[in-house]
Amino acid sequence: MMRIAPLVVILCIATVVGLGDGAGCPMHAAFGRRSLKQVPPVVQPPLQFGYYATSCPNLTNIVAERVNFWVLQDIRTPGKLLRLFFHDCVAAGCEGSILLNSTAALQAEKDAPISATLDKFFVIDDIKAAVELQCPGVVSCADILALAAVKSVALAGGPSFDIDLGRRDGTVSYLAAATASDPLSTMKVDALVASMALAGLDINDLVALSGAHTIGEVHCTSFTDRYDPALNTPFPDAAFGAELQAFCTGNGAAPDFATLNLKTFMDLQSPNMFDTSYYVNLIIGRGVMTSDQDLYNDPRTQPMVNQFATNRTAFFDAFIASMLKMGRQGVLTGTNGIIRKQCWTAQL
To answer: Gene3D superfamilies from the xrefs (predicted)?
Structure first.
């Protein structure tokens, strides 16, 4: 029988509980190194279609009615709600952290420079209040945001589809998460793909989700790079570029794009209709941002742009698939997270 010295026994115990690397332990080959991180986590339930069928059966109708109300006040609402959902998911997962206000101790995602143009937070607060009247303490802000985005697409003429629910709300929001993860308007495809990968999305999702820009707006300051010869990102349609420059500077009255703080639609053909014209614009060189136009310039993404420009069904199907995929990233379910009473604070 092999005798094991006391010191060796200590090393072996450390290995088994994950506090040592197993060196010097004769049982190391049998047990291997075990880290505390390798302890199986508690399995949380996945998102589900019809998650609130019994706990809040009228939820989708409430959300649809309130989104429709706000669309009647401002036809640009769908694009803004869709953008909120995207920024929530890509920064730290779809757990409603984009909705949280900063505190004295912590700056939130919504106060990051890249989040400065996000809008319609109050619409989500309004929907939450309406939902709380019928189903108090049941529906998360993260799910309300997801549903509002989906209903916005349909109200703008896009596909009508269901999204799986059961998200719970995060309790913290970090400015750095938005700064590190959100794609920039000046990025080309390589950088965009890398940015999307951080959110669990791929190049196909990049092209499909970019189609949401068909109902989006952009500040003039987001595409000043296209007028810098050193950056080599000019407008293929020079007349279109000149038209935008004139608009953004008040026909030359303002010294730069930032002075007037103007915005333009990313799809000037049908800015409030969720359709394929965004992709058509890329083909004819009328993509507003570098991150838009490079989808057509890059040979990896150009075939998808061509397909979506001419096949609405293909675009809608791809968009739905990517929305569902994005909506499952970084979610909190089961016993993780909370159900916030108000979407802007995690205080109970």
So the answer is: 1.10.520.10, Peroxidase, domain 2
